[in-house]
UniProtKB/TrEMBL annotation, chain A:
Residues 5-224 form the Cytochrome b/b6 N-terminal region profile domain. One of its GO terms (biological process) is respiratory electron transport chain. The chain crosses the membrane at residues 39-67, 96-114, 126-146, 193-215. It comes from Ornithinibacillus halotolerans. This is Menaquinol:cytochrome c reductase cytochrome b subunit. Keywords: Cell membrane, Electron transport, Heme, Iron, Membrane, Metal-binding, Transmembrane, Transmembrane helix, Transport. The keyword Transmembrane helix applies.
UniProtKB/TrEMBL annotation, chain B:
PROSITE patterns: RIESKE (PS51296), TAT (PS51318). The chain crosses the membrane at residues 13-34. Residues 83-162 form the Rieske domain. Component of the menaquinol:cytochrome c reductase complex. The Rieske protein is a high potential 2Fe-2S protein. The main subunits of the menaquinol:cytochrome c complex are a Rieske-type iron-sulfur protein (QcrA), a cytochrome b (QcrB) and a cytochrome c (QcrC). GO terms for molecular function: 2 iron, 2 sulfur cluster binding; metal ion binding; monooxygenase activity; oxidoreductase activity, acting on paired donors, with incorporation or reduction of molecular oxygen. Belongs to the Rieske iron-sulfur protein family. This is Menaquinol:cytochrome c reductase iron-sulfur subunit. The keyword Membrane applies. One of its GO terms (cellular component) is membrane. It holds the Pfam family Rieske. Keywords: 2Fe-2S, Disulfide bond, Electron transport, Iron, Iron-sulfur, Membrane, Metal-binding, Oxidoreductase, Transmembrane, Transmembrane helix, Transport. It comes from Ornithinibacillus halotolerans. Its cofactor is [2Fe-2S] cluster.
TrEMBL record, chain C:
This is Menaquinol-cytochrome c reductase cytochrome b/c subunit. The chain crosses the membrane at residues 46-63, 102-124, 136-154. InterPro entries: Cyt_b/b6_C, Cyt_b/b6_C_sf, Cyt_c-like_dom, Cyt_c-like_dom_sf, Cytb/b6-like_sf, Cytochrome_c550/c551-like. It comes from Ornithinibacillus halotolerans. Gene3D superfamilies: Cytochrome Bc1 Complex, Chain C (1.20.810.10), Cytochrome c-like domain (1.10.760.10). The gene is qcrC.
């Protein structure tokens, strides 16, 4: 039955080559920790992606309860943590994932750096990777505000004051982020929410796609 | 030949292990989020349905339906509000108190007692000319397909308390 | 692959009716041994992922995500602190050469240079050798930057009393408890504690909330007299009877909050 459905689709869309290409491509053995244990350093990139998946999933579920509004944001997070079964765990996954993903990203970056894996022909992929790092830091900064508790509020205020110090465009940059000249409040929260949930993830997906396509094109760098 | 056969079974074994590990990871990842998402289905502790004093003394209830409006304390997750409710209250022939919901069972408009001059002694819905008899039963041939819902009621210290709305659909 | 004349398509689509061969690409001459991505490589990768996930979930269960008190812009006592991965930047801005008139250097100059160099690393370090000892400058620079970042983060974090910070910033339930102002202890509270701990025990600039605290009656009495953390001693100025009423009042509020 399943085979028939598959054949029906395959005849029309010719999907076999797509997944065969992914499934059958060869991966060098030197990156497999089962062969040389020291190859575990090659896992950092994959684990980073895994945490990104955790973040996307837990984040999607968290928006079922969260409202980006200064009256209700904190209340909804409090409700989620105290009243909803497993709400504490899901928020915990998102909270700890945000830290772990930075750690993993750092380890992955260091692995690539110290192995010199960014050298020709992989310069472009390194730059895409560093951009992913920036996007992650941006996600961390915008996500920190969303629960609307004291530490979120004051950390964001400091961050916005730093943006204000930027020469020439500083004031405009701050208003663009905060939504208001003076107040860090309702408009700031919705902006940060939009950036955290739509803009930066969109950038992240595009960059991740570029990262993976380049890896498939060029293959994993050889052993040292 | 035999070697090739073994190759296939090894590949199958790897495939099954892969599915197992993948399933384990997916389960570990999704158990908590899904439990959280379905929590409202399992909890069902909606605050709607507690008895509320509607501010009407029992002795003031007549055999003519009168409209009462009251507010309930509604806790909707993290949001607390006091939405209004209304009902048509009267005493039937046996002297029992009846509190009917004014929400038409057709498409949710609000019905009123003798809302149309043409139809005396009936509830009338202005949207599609739905009609109900005094006990809230829909009159055949008009759009509604079920009787009006009734509110659970009780009397305390001579005051009327209304509670949960009970649908009479299919009754 | 079939090309040119005689090609057949599915209907009027662009999908070829004749199936291409499904022999994987040839890696036989690729230096070093290889293995198939699916299932050989992915299985090991996912095993590592599963172990990682177990560790991650244990961490999540062992340390619930913290939530502070509702943001209060007037709370002047709160010391802002970013998330830990921005601490190095936060600490950097404390130094003289990175603050005051040099703030741009500290905020944009140094981090901009570091991250710019990171972004352009392949072009700055463009020799052919990949081994660390073949490119000592790049490796030393990276080591220095890494050490500086870790050291700055550590210095910044070690100055913070994390426990006191968390205690200062407890989440107060939104449907905050109703304060029984007719309670005899309330007058004592009003006279001794309210200026710091707020009208409804919600806490304020100088003192944390008293709702949801986990102290016994004796401990509360002791704290009122001897102080705790930043709270000085002898804040309570009353008779022992009044102290007892005060403790009764605070515990009754907490019992109510615990329900």
């Amino acid at each position: 039955m399943l085979q028939k459905i598959y054949d029906w689709i395959d005849e029309r869309v010719d999907i076999t080559p797509i997944w065969r290409d992914i499934a059958d491509h060869e991966v060098p053995e030197h990156v497999n920790p089962a062969h040389h244990f020291s190859a575990f350093v090659y896992c950092f990139g994959g684990l980073t992606f895994f945490v990104v998946v955790i973040q996307i999933l837990s984040g999607m579920f968290l928006t079922m309860y969260y409202v980006p509004d200064i009256e209700n944001a904190w209340k909804s997070v409090y409700y989620l943590q105290t009243e909803v079964a497993h709400g504490q765990i899901v928020r915990g996954m998102h909270h700890w994932g945000a830290s772990i993903v930075i750690v993993m990203l750092l380890l992955h970056t260091l692995r690539v750096f110290f192995q010199g894996a960014y050298k020709k022909p992989r310069e472009l992929n390194w730059m895409v990777g560093v951009l992913i790092f920036f996007v992650m830091l941006g996600l961390g900064f915008t996500g920190y505000l969303l629960p609307w508790d004291n530490k979120a509020f004051f950390a964001t205020q400091v961050g916005l004051q730093m943006a204000e110090q930027v020469p020439i465009i500083g004031d405009e940059l701050k208003i663009l982020l905060a939504g208001d000249e003076e107040i860090v409040g309702a408009q700031t929260l919705t902006r940060f929410f939009a950036i955290h949930v739509f803009f930066l993830p969109a950038a992240l997906f595009a960059l991740l796609a570029a990262h993976f396509i380049l890896i498939r094109r060029q293959g994993i760098s050889g052993p040292l | 030949m035999s070697e090739e056969k073994q190759q296939v079974s090894r590949r199958q074994f790897l495939n099954y292990s892969l599915m197992g590990v993948g399933g384990f990871m997916a389960a570990g990842l999704l158990v908590s989020p899904i439990r959280m998402a379905i929590d409202p289905v399992l909890k069902k502790t909606s605050s709607a349905g507690e008895f509320v004093n509607v501010g009407l003394a029992v002795e003031d209830i007549t055999t003519t339906p009168q409209r009462v409006d009251w507010q309930i304390d509604q806790v909707d997750g993290w949001y607390e509000s006091k939405p209004g409710r209304s009902a048509w209250v009267y005493k039937n022939e046996k002297g029992d108190i009846v509190a009917l919901s004014p929400v038409c069972t057709h498409l949710g408009c609000v019905v009123s007692w003798e809302g149309s001059d043409k139809h005396q002694n009936e509830f009338f819905c202005p949207c599609h000319d739905g009609r109900y008899t005094k006990d809230g039963v829909n009159i055949p041939g008009t759009p509604p397909l079920a009787p009006l819902s009734v509110y659970e009621h009780k009397v305390e210290n001579g005051m009327l308390f209304l509670g949960k709305e009970i649908s009479r659909k299919g009754a | 692959m079939h090309r040119g004349k005689g090609m057949k398509f599915v209907g009027d689509s662009r999908v070829s009716a004749s199936r291409t061969s499904q022999i994987p690409k040839d890696y036989s001459e690729y230096p070093g041994r290889t293995e198939a991505f699916w299932p050989n490589f992915l299985l090991k990768e996912w095993l590592a992922g599963a172990v990682f996930l177990v560790g991650f979930l244990i961490l999540t269960l062992a340390h619930p995500s913290p939530l502070g008190g509702l943001a209060d812009p007037t709370n002047a006592a709160f010391i802002p602190l970013p998330d830990w991965y921005f601490l190095f930047l936060y600490e950097l801005l404390k130094y003289e050469f990175a603050s005051g008139q040099y703030v741009l250097l500290g905020m944009l100059g140094i981090p901009g240079l570091a991250f710019g160099a990171l972004l352009l690393a392949p072009f700055l370090d463009n020799g052919p050798g990949r081994r660390p000892h073949q490119r000592p400058i790049a490796v030393i620079m990276m080591m220095l930057a890494l050490t500086a970042t870790i050291w700055l983060t550590y210095t910044s974090a070690s100055h913070v009393d994390w426990e006191a910070r968390a205690a200062m910033d407890q989440p107060v339930p939104p449907a905050s408890v109703e304060i029984d102002t007719s309670h005899e202890g309330y007058a004592v509270y009003e006279a001794n504690c309210m200026s710091c701990h707020g009208e409804s025990l919600e806490g304020g600039a100088a003192g944390p909330t008293l709702v949801g605290i986990e102290y016994s009656a004796e401990e509360i009495a002791q704290i009122a007299q001897e102080g705790i953390n930043t709270m000085p001693a002898d804040m309570f100025k009353g008779t022992p009877e009044e102290l007892e009423l005060l403790v009764q009042f605070i515990t009754s509020v907490n019992e109510q909050a615990a329900e």
